[in-house]
Amino acid sequence: MTVPTPPQSVTVRVPAKVNVQLGVGGRRADGFHDLANVFFAVALGDEVTATPADTLRITVSGPDADQVPLDGSNLAARAARLLARRHGRRPDVHLHIAKEIPVAGGMAGGSADGAAALVACDALWGTATPFGTLLELAAELGSDVPFALLGGVALGRGRGEILEPLPAGGTFHWVFAVADGGLSTPAVFRECDRLRDEAGTGSDTAAVPDPQPDPALLDALAAGDPVALAAALGNDLQPAALSLRPALADTLRAGADGGALGTLVSGSGPTCAFLTKDAESAATVAAALTASGTCRSVRVTHGPVPGATVTGRR
Ligand code: ATP
C-alpha cells in the first residue's frame, strides 16, 4: 500500500462579498446589531498559499499589501493558530496572501483570508476537518468568515454568522469602485446609531424593528433577474458611510449616470458596488467610473461564485 505524500504547498482561492441587502437592527445590550444580511460572493478574490515553515509567518503581495498586518492579528494567522490548536499541533506554516480584495473596503477581505487559511492549512496538514467544524471555527474568528467558506448567496442572521444558503438563478455582473483609504466597520455602525438617535427614532433594539429579508430581493436572486435585483438592493449602513465619506455620493452618481441598473455602498464601505445588465454593460459602467475620477480603481467582476476552494496543490 502506498502512503500519500503530504503536499508541499496548497493554494486556496477565496471570494470577496457584497451585501445585496444589509438590514441593521437596533444596538443590542452586547453592542452588536442583529442583521438581515444577504451575502453574495463575487469572483474578485484573494489567493492564500500555505507552505510548511519553522514558525507561523505571513507575507502579502498586491496593491494594498502595505495596509495588511503581518503579525498575529492577521485573520489568516489567527485561523492557522485556531485550527492547529483544534488538532493539537503547532501552527508552523508560511501563509502568503496574494491580495486583490480592497483592505477595509466593506468586502470582508480579512475574513476571506481567515477562511482561506483554514482550508489551506487543513489540506496542507492533512487534518481532514469536517466542513461543519470549519464553519464553527470560522464563526469564532468573525461574523463574516463562515460566508467566505460557503460562498454563493446566503442569508446571514444573528451577527451575520448564522447562514442559510439561498438559490441564485444565474450569473450577475458587477462593477466595484475602490476608494482611497478604508472605513472602520465599528465606526460606521456607531455612525448608524448616531444618525438614528439624531433623527429621533432611537437606536436600540426596542426602537428599531427586527430586520427581515426582502421577499422581492430573494425572488430576484432566485430568478436571476438583474433588473428586479437592482430595484431591491438595500444597505442600512449606506447613510452612515455617506455621512462619514460624503464624496461617495459622487461615485454612486457616476456609476448610475454610466448606466448601472442599481448602485449601493458595499457593506460598511467605502467600496461602491454597481449591478449591471450584462458583461458588456459592466465594461461601459467601468469606463464611466474611471473617466469620472471619483475613485482610486475600478474592478469588473461577476457572481455568485463558490467559497474558499483549493485551486493548487504541489
Ligand atoms: P468587513 O466588510 O468584514 O467589515 P472590511 O472589508 O471592511 O471588513 P478588511 O479588509 O477585512 O475590512 O480589513 C479590516 C481590518 O482588518 C484592516 O484594517 C486590518 O487591520 C485588519 N486585518 C486583519 N487581517 C487582515 C487581512 N488578512 N487582510 C486585510 N486586513 C486584515
Brief characterization of the structure:
This protein has helices spanning 75-86, 109-125, 131-141, 145-150, 185-198, 215-223, 226-232, 238-244, 248-257, 279-292, and strands spanning 10-27, 33-52, 57-61, 93-98, 153-157, 162-165, 172-178, 234-235, 262-265, 272-276, 297-303, 309-313.
Features:
314 residues, alpha+beta, Ribosomal Protein S5, domain 2, Alpha-Beta Plaits, 2 domains, 8-stranded mixed beta sheet, 4-stranded antiparallel beta sheet, 10 helices, 12 strands, globular, binds adenosine-5'-triphosphate
Structure description:
By secondary structure, this protein is α+β, with helices and mostly antiparallel strands. The chain folds into 2 domains: 10-167 and 305-313, Ribosomal Protein S5, domain 2, CATH 3.30.230.10; 172-303, GHMP kinase, C-terminal domain (Alpha-Beta Plaits, 2-Layer Sandwich). The protein has 10 helices and 12 strands. The strands form 2 sheets. Strands 1, 2, 3, 4, 5, 6, 8 and 12 form an 8-stranded mixed sheet that branches. Strand 9 and strand 10 form a beta hairpin. Helix 6 runs antiparallel to helix 7 and helix 9 packs across helix 10. The longest helix is centred in the middle third of the chain and has 17 residues, at 109-125. It is globular and about 65 Å long. It starts with 9 loop residues before the first strand and ends with a strand. The mean pLDDT is 95. The structure holds adenosine-5'-triphosphate. Adenosine-5'-triphosphate binds at residues 68-69, 73-76, 97, 103-111, 113, 144, 182, 185, 267-268.
